[in-house]
Amino acid sequence: MVRKAENARERFESAAYSLFGEQGYAATTVPEIAAKAGLTERTFYRYFTDKREVLFWRAGVHQLTIINEIARAPAGIHPLTMVARAFEAVAPFIDSHRPFVKLRQLLISTHGDLQERELMKLHMLASAVDLALRQRGIQPSLSRVIAEMGAAIWKVALENWRADKGEGNFASHVQAALAEFRAELHVSERPG
């Protein structure tokens, strides 16, 4: 009987980020990640399809958190506010893993294949938000627009968070991006 390695996914993640930081993403191999994690290459492939997936596996976990927050949001608030508040639920993870998240964002910004993967994940997030809003009774065309705006707010907030020399928290960057968006487009707080 094969036993699962304790915290294997997290161990691979930690080892990968360490190696990415030391020698770069392109130069890092799966065997090196496995060795640094103290696990086998075969075990790596039980959890990840490739080294790229190490940077993206948490997206599904974050997406589920966001969707659950939208589902339990109070009635009567604007859908875009609902989405922004749901994004804030992920802030504790982002803020407490600042070095990894900053390195992740740097790697994505400098590697085309990672940018493509990030765009796919953002599309998946927008689709999930769209469905969650429709389940809340928001009309489909409005829910899709709000979901796409939400994905843009997420992206801008994350970019601004990464660039913030004062290391402000992610939630404040979500709210700042939302406020800037509202100010420019004069989006009211009325429910949709």
Automatic annotation (TrEMBL):
<dbReference type="InterPro" id="IPR001647">
    <property type="entry name" value="HTH_TetR"/>
</dbReference>
<feature type="DNA-binding region" description="H-T-H motif">
    <location>
        <begin position="29"/>
        <end position="48"/>
    </location>
</feature>
<dbReference type="InterPro" id="IPR050624">
    <property type="entry name" value="HTH-type_Tx_Regulator"/>
</dbReference>
<protein>
    <submittedName>
        <fullName>TetR/AcrR family transcriptional regulator</fullName>
    </submittedName>
</protein>
<dbReference type="Pfam" id="PF00440">
    <property type="entry name" value="TetR_N"/>
</dbReference>
<dbReference type="InterPro" id="IPR023772">
    <property type="entry name" value="DNA-bd_HTH_TetR-type_CS"/>
</dbReference>
<dbReference type="InterPro" id="IPR009057">
    <property type="entry name" value="Homeodomain-like_sf"/>
</dbReference>
<feature type="domain" description="HTH tetR-type">
    <location>
        <begin position="6"/>
        <end position="66"/>
    </location>
</feature>
<keyword id="KW-0238">DNA-binding</keyword>
